[in-house]
Amino acid sequence: SAVVEVLEISNNSKEESRNRWRIVEVTKNIEWTARDEVGCFQCSDSEILIFGGIDVSNICNDEVFRFNFSEGRLAKDKWKLGNKDFFVMTTPVRLKEGICTAGLSQSGIHIYSPAVASSDAKSPWSIVDTKDW
Q: Which member of 27, 29, 53, 63 has the greatest number of CB atoms within 10 A?
């Protein structure tokens, strides 16, 4: 797959090598639809989770996908968010409980627990209700 540089951020040569965007060809063997306002975070050295968002039919989603950027592989995760939600300008925060991010359509904080995810026994996603805060 061809790698294309789209942006260089710094004039410092050491920084330039780390701050380049690139286009990665994706192999997908699942039904993926384009989405706006998804949430995402890096969960390992080679993988990011992409979750929620609003699809082309203006429907909010609770689906979770794993994108392995070393292999260029996109796969649907077996677990879903606790609620359908979308994420605009929300930054995930890593705490001891897991990775937390605020959704915008529900009154809650989504928490992803890597420890629970590694056991594969139950969903690593949970929600803390914030409507009474």
A: 53
Whether pTM exceeds 0.85: no
The residue length of the chain stands at: 133
Residue 47's CB: how many other CB atoms inside 10 A?
Answer: 15
pLDDT in tens, 97-128: 788 888 887 667 888 888 888 887 889 888 88
Q: Which residue has the tokens 């026994």?
A: 121
**Beta partners for residue 49, in sequence order:** 41, 66
CB of 98 closer than 8 Å to CB of 113: yes
The span from the CA of 27 to the CA of 47, in Å, is 14
